[in-house]
Amino acid sequence: MKLTISGGLDRPVVRFDDGRAACVDYLDVRDVAAPGRSLWTLRAIGVRCEMVGHIVYGETPGGFIVETPPAPLNADASYEVFGKGLTTNLMAKVRWSGGLRIQYRDGAWREAAVAHMAPRT
């Protein structure tokens, strides 16, 4: 699953596969400079995923719980965003996961070089 980020530093927006709705059960934002430290974590309530078109940082979509409350983001810092869920194929449900490393520079979110993304739970 391809994740993209848009919006401002105070309200970044995560989109899935170029804006298509996705069935998401987990989303995590981490500070690259502090490995293992989540800045914001959402998990779907129960065992199912929730269909969302996008997720705005700090806003909890219906059907999700906050595991880690949102922390402020800083310009020029590097962040990892990771999500997972299920495909919506009628024939079979297949787990997906996706992530990217980003920085907010010069007024916009930009993909940052990734040497290695930390494993997720």
Write the layout of secondary structure elements.
Elements: E1 3-6, E2 13-16, E3 22-31, E4 38-44, E5 50-52, E6 54-56, E7 64-68, E8 78-86, E9 95-105, E10 108-111
Describe this structure as you would to a colleague.
This protein has 121 residues and is mainly beta. It has no helices and ten strands. The strands form two sheets. Strands 3, 4, 5, 7, 8, 9 and 10 form a seven-stranded antiparallel β-sheet that branches. Strands 1-2-6 form a three-stranded antiparallel β-sheet, with no helix packed on it. A hairpin with an 8-residue loop joins strand 8 and strand 9 (95-105). The mean pLDDT is 89. Helix content is 0%, strand content 50%.
Radius of gyration: 14 Å
Q: In angstroms, what separates the terminal alpha carbons? A: 17 Å
By DSSP (H or I, 4+ residues per run), the number of helices equals 0
Tell me the helix content: under 10%
| Alpha-beta classification | mainly beta
| Residue windows where pLDDT falls under 50 for at least 5 positions | none
Please write the string of helix (H) and strand (E) elements.
EEEEEEEEEE
Apparent shape: globular
Largest sheet: 7 strands, antiparallel
The counted number of beta strands is 10
Our estimate of the beta-strand percent is over 45%
Can you give the mean pLDDT?
Answer: 89
Key attributes of the depicted protein:
121 residues, mainly beta, 7-stranded antiparallel sheet, 3-stranded antiparallel sheet, 10 strands
Give a brief rundown of this model.
The protein is mainly β and 121 residues long.
